[in-house]
Amino acid sequence: MGDLSGKTAIITGAASGIGYAGVEVFMQAGATIVAGDLQDEKGKALETRFGSDRVRYVHCDVTKTDDLKTLFATAEDAFGGVDILWNNAGHGGTPTGVEELDEDGFDQTVALLLKSVFVGTKLAVPYMKKRGGGSVINTSSISAVCAGYAPITYSVCKKGVAHFSKLAAAELSKHKIRVNAILPGFIATSIFGASLGLSREQADQMAALVEQQGGRMQPAGRTGTGKDIAEMAAFLASEKASFITGGEFLVDGGMTVGPRHSWDETDGGPLLDALGITPEQAEQMQLAMQAQDG
């Protein structure tokens, strides 16, 4: 983790999940933080836990430009400026596919997951120019690079976030503003339950279940946590990453290395699946053939 002493960070979606872990990790690294979210009770609890001299909570709907402006104004008034912006707020988006496209849901998903990243970054520029530079971190997803991990609208927006980060890195380099994207994998947060329409309390409970059961899905052998993503973000925000910009960083426990059979020897793979043969049956056939040859 990098040293963030003397730096002020804005984190959106900060009251739960990855964003909450971000507040914890950035605090440990020495930063002061403006935390934006819609969950006021949880947000106020951040101030109580860490102290308003280190963390300020602001009610923020990132689809509203005025709310985003308030985040930056609060950071300057309370802590003297902005060095880091982590565009992290989000949800699972509209679940519909191409054929049954929900246009209102599409627009809402784009506004939350993609447009807010554009607007947040735009608003950060004058503040960071005053500081002689800064770091913008955008939360994308492995669904930006592979099909099958999330609904199509969500996935397209996250691809847009990743590519925007590269383009913005090029454009803003003249101001010494670095821009990078993190592509989380299967992380134990409430986003899964929320996508299913569960209450916040039920979604939080489901996150605990995901953490317990999700390790079988990836080579790392465990489910990712918010801290895994937050520590990458803290590194990218720090001077240790001063030579890194325009990057897309997979933090996914290896989910995207290849199909399951590439890392799990108990998985038969596509050929055995096509033949309807289990790995055990294949081994028995191999032994029988060796016996015949012998």
From TrEMBL:
<dbReference type="Pfam" id="PF13561">
    <property type="entry name" value="adh_short_C2"/>
</dbReference>
<protein>
    <submittedName>
        <fullName>SDR family oxidoreductase</fullName>
    </submittedName>
</protein>
<keyword id="KW-0443">Lipid metabolism</keyword>
<dbReference type="InterPro" id="IPR036291">
    <property type="entry name" value="NAD(P)-bd_dom_sf"/>
</dbReference>
<dbReference type="InterPro" id="IPR002347">
    <property type="entry name" value="SDR_fam"/>
</dbReference>
<comment type="similarity">
    <text>Belongs to the short-chain dehydrogenases/reductases (SDR) family.</text>
</comment>
<keyword id="KW-0560">Oxidoreductase</keyword>
<keyword id="KW-0520">NAD</keyword>
<dbReference type="GO" id="GO:0008202">
    <property type="term" value="P:steroid metabolic process"/>
</dbReference>
<dbReference type="GO" id="GO:0016491">
    <property type="term" value="F:oxidoreductase activity"/>
</dbReference>
<keyword id="KW-0753">Steroid metabolism</keyword>
